[in-house]
Design goal:
2 copies of one chain form a homodimer. The first copy, chain A, is about 40% helix and about 15% strand. Chain A contains 12 helices and 8 strands.
């Protein structure tokens, strides 16, 4: 179909559910009509809008940032938790535990202004490459989802990202790659403090967690940042289940979608065993909760957009 | 001028500064051109977009909510801090201190979903009247500011409210009265928790402060919610000074505006002595910081829009 708004989606139950839903909520003569102000759609990022396997992109960024710190100060490479990360020593990383992980993020993600951090993230994303897909991370956004975001906005939806990733990190690609404005990104955040240094006001990221935007924290942050219950939500892991249930248990027409990574040939196949962000409960209870499962293998005829990177 | 975009503003330095600023940042051939994505304008609410005198509107709401609680449970009227508020006993209110004030807000603003609270706020605003202006509070929005918001949006700006008031309370009027979407309102907030009750997901407002969005917290919350330094900010008190300095100390063209309530005849005249939100430091240092002062008396030929309330 020449005028198919979702050409990378195969004809199947999920695509039909999306087209039917959008047709109903935008038809003023239909009982399911939803006023434009209420057309809020929320998308998880890692594993929903771009590839998160074998590690979330921000973890690769973290590793590269620690490497840079180690160049500036060689003693870092000898100290935990930095040594474990640089050696990719998973056993040692597990041993340093949650506290160690926070230490890694604190050392690399705070103590600077949010603007300085955003510049670091953008610069890194310009060149950093996925170890297996041999493309830049920022090229591993899912083409079917880009089409869906564009399609929803063309029908009066406002599209938001609600991510467990760092809010500044995801904002660094949201506008250029998803057409989602920075203020439409909700994510994990540090506490921050305004201060005036040499006559210039700056907001400094502190090494203290403000919000880890995962699981039950996602609907809580949606309420804080957006102030509206979404009518459509899209996720891919148990970390998105609360957001999906928040969306689906509101009054009126609702659509909740869950991407299943079952395409070993074109991307990766994983769910329950993915340590950093498992998909188990949401998969088992999808039918009970009215969640529409999307199979990457069956429902998408294309995974990624073009490789825009410079020749390696 | 028939095509004057700001008819309620008198010809004077502030109006000329606004028109000149917008002309420069939207002229692609001008060195001061600002890309649409960066055209972010932030407005304080109480005393900047609507009347805050003799008390912020939300304090009147608080009083009415405590009255309702006292009807349901008569013992409340005998207990502090409720008794002090119901008796309008300022000395007793000062005596209960900050802790007492939190107790008042906790009893009336939390323990319910954000959606239930928003309904209460909207219902109250539909009828509640200002004690002296004899109009509904929601009619006491400033007509010159409505014109300014519309004018900025027509020139590609995104307009945000950054308020010390409660985020849900201000959201209850932001879309209908300011044309500002709920997600474009940043404000004070409680902590919140997602829970599923009888199969329905809800976000519950807890009786614990998340952020008091005043002074240095305003730029910190702008960075969190908006992710961009504004290029234009408008305030009216020392609570807005950090936001104004954050705005004015960024690179490129900037405009910071400060409304002075000096119009006893048409509204109220107050600044340093206004206990709940004084204007002192910002007034004294306006020139040093490059802040443009706006005199309500001299710069506005009209204060309020039409009285839309039902006949009393």
């Amino acid at each position: 179909m020449a005028d198919d708004p979702l050409p990378s989606w195969n004809d199947g139950a999920p695509k039909r559910a999306i087209l039917d839903f959008v047709a109903r909520v935008t038809d003023a003569d239909c009982g399911d009509f939803v006023a434009p102000a209420d057309r809020v759609a929320t998308f998880d990022n890692d594993g929903t809008l771009w590839c998160e396997f074998p590690l979330q992109v921000q973890v690769f960024f973290l590793i590269d940032r620690v490497r840079e710190l180690a160049i500036a100060d060689a003693s870092i490479a000898e100290r935990q938790p930095f040594k474990a990360l640089l050696d990719r020593d998973l056993a040692a990383l597990h041993a340093v535990g949650k506290q160690g992980i926070w230490e890694l993020f604190a050392a690399t993600h705070s103590g600077m202004s949010d603007e300085a951090f955003a510049t670091l993230a953008r610069q890194w994303l310009t060149t950093a490459r996925h170890p297996e897909l041999v493309r830049r991370f920022q090229d591993n956004v899912y083409q079917p989802q880009i089409e869906l975001l564009v399609y929803l906005r063309a029908h009066g939806f406002r599209t938001f990202i609600v991510t467990g990733g760092g809010i500044e990190f995801v904002r660094a690609i949201a506008e250029s790659h998803y057409g989602v404005m920075r203020e439409q990104v909700v994510g994990s955040s540090d506490k921050r403090r305004f201060e005036i240094v040499d006559g210039r006001g700056q907001v400094i990221k502190l090494s203290e967690l403000n919000s880890f935007d995962d699981r039950e924290e996602k609907p809580a942050n949606i309420a804080l940042h957006i102030g509206r219950r979404p009518i459509l939500a899209f996720g891919n892991s148990d970390g998105d289940l609360a957001m999906l249930r928040y969306t689906l248990t509101g009054a009126g027409p609702r659509l909740g979608l869950l991407l299943h990574h079952d395409d070993e040939a074109r991307e990766f196949a994983y769910d329950r065993e993915f340590h950093f962000s498992p998909l188990a409960e949401a998969l088992e209870k999808a039918a009970d909760y009215g969640i529409t499962l999307v199979s990457m293998k069956d429902d998408w005829n294309r995974i990624f957009g073009p490789d825009t990177g410079p020749a390696a």
